[in-house]
Amino acid sequence: MSQLRRDPITGRWVEINISSPMGCDDFDLKPQVKKGGVCPFCSGNEKMTPPEIEAIRPHTTKPDTPGWTVRVVSNKFPALKIEGNLDKRGIGIFDLSNGVGAHEVIIENPDHNKDLADLSRDEIKNVILKYRSRSLDLENDLRFRYILLFKNHGEAAGASLEHSHTQLVALPIVPKRVKEELKGAENYFKYRERCVFCDIIAQEFQEKERIIFENNSFLAFCPFVSRFPFEVWLLPKVHNPEFKSIDDNTIYDMADALKDVLMRVKIRLNDPAYNFIIHTSPIRDGSNEEFHWHLELMPKLTNVAGFEWGSGLYINPTSPEMNAKCLRETKI
Prior knowledge:
Helix 1 crosses helix 4. The chain is globular. The protein is built from six helices and 15 strands. Helix content is 25%, strand content 23%.
């Protein structure tokens, strides 16, 4: 028999298979196969990308030349373009505006064959530093309301280039998924006068069975209402609505936690395709003190099909308790 579980943040229901869940080895775990070829993100090919926005590199090297360790460029094929005005308007019942925004790529390292999981904690820290610096810079543009950081790893997860990278999109709107979390956090706080995310952390510590990793600043766990097999959330232990305000010590702890989780996923699931996203408070939308920024990681082990699209109710063929145990016991 399956079990219906309700997400305390959004109110969304998820069906979890608890009577006969798929085991950790029951998924079709095909490793990522890199095809190679000329890569614009590799060291030595800097002229193949748009001009460098920021980079971590020795002072003796020039922009758009080799020598960097992390490099930020504009997306060559952006979802939104930074030039122009929003020009919000309506046509009958429909609202529309120009597709104005920023779309950047954080190239995580110069080596084509190294994924984010393969980097050291110090190297991952440098990547997260660029997440922060670009978020802080782009929030100064009054046209933008939300900064979305996300990573597509593997072709099945939407990565068009194999070289490990993260994307940042500055949006003139607040995405619907984020609005759902903001509203859910607000409603929970009004009713209980507590942060729903902080309560989730407390619940995970109480039950312990879904925890994968923790350090001084972060907790990594498979959420009780996991939409997907081996879904992992990374939450800062100290309440904070905004990712951009993360300090250097917390960044290192985030790198430590992310390294641990990504290595466990890579080893246990044979380097699956995955997405991760960082949900943070909007730039200019009140205080949102009830919100709690976090990272959601979702391996691509199953497909979202007609039932999910039609109902909004996800079906998870395994259980987060089993998934957490598998990842926790993985040797790295």
